[in-house]
Amino acid sequence: MRGSIDTGRKSSRWPLTSLDCLRVYAGWQTHRAEELVVTEGAWMDLEQDLRTVSDEMLRALEQLQRLETAKRSAAPGTPRFLKLAREVEKLAAMVFAQTSVQQSLAEQTHSATRAGADIAPIEEIAVARDLSVILAEWRDAERRLAATDMETAEHAKAAGDVRRLRDEYHRAYRAQSIDRS
Questions:
Q1: Contacts 24+ apart (CB under 8 A), 162-169
Q2: Mean pLDDT of 136-155
């Protein structure tokens, strides 16, 4: 049975997307890691949350770089330049919100290690997700991609999510197929 971190809230899950980071930023910034009680197996969930949030940050930074590169090639003063500048600003705000979530997780890892948890470095943490969850997110990303205008932060994010989820699904499917043989 997997443990959880008792935060005194209904759910101890951290946000998994940039938009979730923005929605809960105000609530999490006042939550102190010292108040958390680490229970058996909680660091396994914490490790997965660290991996998820870190992966999301890297994807957002890659998307921010793509948008900024596109803006650099646009003529200043044009509607395209202005639109790209707005999209860069929106995505940068999402990245900023994610830094607060990462700080909260860092404080929680500090508390967990003081309580005896052995938490692996983020790059060593395996991503363990169910195929049906990956597939549902992939389909959602495809719908978001089709519904957004090109050269927007939402389109760049959706395109990145489609690529990432397609690759994740294929890796997970192959791993599952190997496990069954």
A1: 162/138, 164/59, 165/134, 165/137, 165/138, 165/141, 166/138, 168/127, 168/129, 168/134, 169/131, 169/134, 169/135, 169/138
A2: 93
